[in-house]
């Protein structure tokens, strides 16, 4: 028995996607990682999955793209499961920065020199250093296996071209990592930690994968389709709170007002979001607004939230 909302989505979602697609022209595909510049500028797609596993897709939901910063939510979860809360928050803070995702500004300003939160680049690089595993390959493999489990997709892989491109153009991330090493925050070999980070940012997904991963968060760590618990509830609570306060970079405040759903974006144009207890949602739209979020994707989520009353607030 489909709900009223579900029936409305089936009927109207394709139209809403086309309305938001008009925004693409105002946006820019990320090019600081050269390989990302190849993404289709006018693409916009969405997949919404409910707790029974039924889903509705519209637009270009099937195009593959790399997770980029969306992966940071899940490496945080794995690091929490590996180390516990105290050890993680010894090395990374809980506050939004108000700065760009790749800013180094506050690493020096505020003592003891730990990154403000785990969803900015500096914080996520520290999180990569906390993933358990004897060597870099083992850490990267554990991340990939964890993502595969959450997405219920054994075929998730690192996009080698994007990985190479990112590793070859990461001077800013490298300087941050060395800075953190000098601060005594980052343990281990800088190159290896960065490699774990570049690889998890470069994992290829579709909107369906994001929707399924988001569904696990929407159901507090349990995959509602299989009934399997993947993540302790407390850690999901932490991750979703970071998504609200920091998930859309320094546009998180505006997004909370206009959309009001926990979300995480990436520079490849993906957005992972959810309606608690109901839906997991994956969006892709590679053309970005000036703050680095999918311009048409944000517009589409504003439409959904406003028309379906999905704001948490
Ligand atoms: N891999 C990207 C970077 O480190 C992730 C950034 C993002 O998606 N905002 O720059």
TrEMBL record:
<feature type="binding site">
    <location>
        <position position="173"/>
    </location>
    <ligand>
        <name>substrate</name>
    </ligand>
</feature>
<protein>
    <recommendedName>
        <fullName>Glutaminase</fullName>
        <ecNumber>3.5.1.2</ecNumber>
    </recommendedName>
</protein>
<dbReference type="Pfam" id="PF04960">
    <property type="entry name" value="Glutaminase"/>
</dbReference>
<dbReference type="InterPro" id="IPR012338">
    <property type="entry name" value="Beta-lactam/transpept-like"/>
</dbReference>
<keyword id="KW-0007">Acetylation</keyword>
<feature type="binding site">
    <location>
        <position position="249"/>
    </location>
    <ligand>
        <name>substrate</name>
    </ligand>
</feature>
<feature type="binding site">
    <location>
        <position position="267"/>
    </location>
    <ligand>
        <name>substrate</name>
    </ligand>
</feature>
<dbReference type="InterPro" id="IPR015868">
    <property type="entry name" value="Glutaminase"/>
</dbReference>
<feature type="binding site">
    <location>
        <position position="197"/>
    </location>
    <ligand>
        <name>substrate</name>
    </ligand>
</feature>
<comment type="subunit">
    <text>Homotetramer.</text>
</comment>
<keyword id="KW-0378">Hydrolase</keyword>
<feature type="binding site">
    <location>
        <position position="69"/>
    </location>
    <ligand>
        <name>substrate</name>
    </ligand>
</feature>
<comment type="similarity">
    <text>Belongs to the glutaminase family.</text>
</comment>
<dbReference type="GO" id="GO:0004359">
    <property type="term" value="F:glutaminase activity"/>
</dbReference>
<feature type="binding site">
    <location>
        <position position="121"/>
    </location>
    <ligand>
        <name>substrate</name>
    </ligand>
</feature>
<feature type="binding site">
    <location>
        <position position="166"/>
    </location>
    <ligand>
        <name>substrate</name>
    </ligand>
</feature>
